[in-house]
Amino acid sequence: MPVLGALPFLKAAHPRLPRDSPGRRRRHTLPASEFRCLGPEDAVSVFEIEREAFISVSGDCPLHLDEIRHFLSLCPELSLGWFEEGRLVAFIIGSLWDEDRLSQAALTLHRPHGTAVHIHVLAVHRTARQQGKGSILMWRYLQHLRCLPVVRRALLMCEDFLVPFYAKCGFKVLGPCDVTVGALAFTEMQYAVRGHAFMRRNSGC
């Protein structure tokens, strides 16, 4: 809250401006930092960040543009974007899954009756990397999942060099993943989303 808005007695120190004065006109500014779920209209921005982040490393993207639109249409509540001054700088996309472990089908399906969230991708814009944004976004995302009563756990698969990053976020290794993409092999990890009732009572979810 602005200081002057919290202390009305200070307003008298400023002369009242005419209603049509430039100083009285409402300023439309974008929030410096905002977290929100994504929708199909965000798909192109998401894909541009993902393409730059992954193609240079693995030669392919976890999700292609039509798949991004698919998940953001079916389950936008399982995504989270970080915007700075209206520009997307990082995102996570997930979908529901209904088996204990991930399989090849998990790459493209959203199973509405599942209780596990499959985290398909986390990516950060190249200008915002090396700033800890990936860890912050994942923390916010996991807190967001606690507000969804159906969700019991989160699953993801990653290359071995990313295991320490996700371990710091609270994920536990389940073992080698059955899913392969070309020549790439992955480790499967799990995060227990717990304390739903407590979180709803104490977090305003």
Automatic annotation (TrEMBL):
InterPro entries: Acyl_CoA_acyltransferase (IPR016181), GNAT_dom (IPR000182), SNAT-like (IPR051635). Pfam families: Acetyltransf_1 (PF00583). One of its GO terms (molecular function) is aralkylamine N-acetyltransferase activity. Residues 33-194 form the N-acetyltransferase domain. Keywords: Acyltransferase, Biological rhythms, Cytoplasm, Melatonin biosynthesis, Phosphoprotein, Transferase. Pathway: Aromatic compound metabolism; melatonin biosynthesis; melatonin from serotonin: step 1/2. GO terms for biological process: circadian rhythm; melatonin biosynthetic process; response to light stimulus. It is found in: Cytoplasm. PROSITE patterns: GNAT (PS51186). It catalyses: a 2-arylethylamine + acetyl-CoA = an N-acetyl-2-arylethylamine + CoA + H(+). Its EC number is 2.3.1.87. GO terms for cellular component: cytoplasm. Belongs to the acetyltransferase family. AANAT subfamily. This is Serotonin N-acetyltransferase. It comes from Nothocercus nigrocapillus. The lineage of its organism: Eukaryota, Metazoa, Chordata, Craniata, Vertebrata.
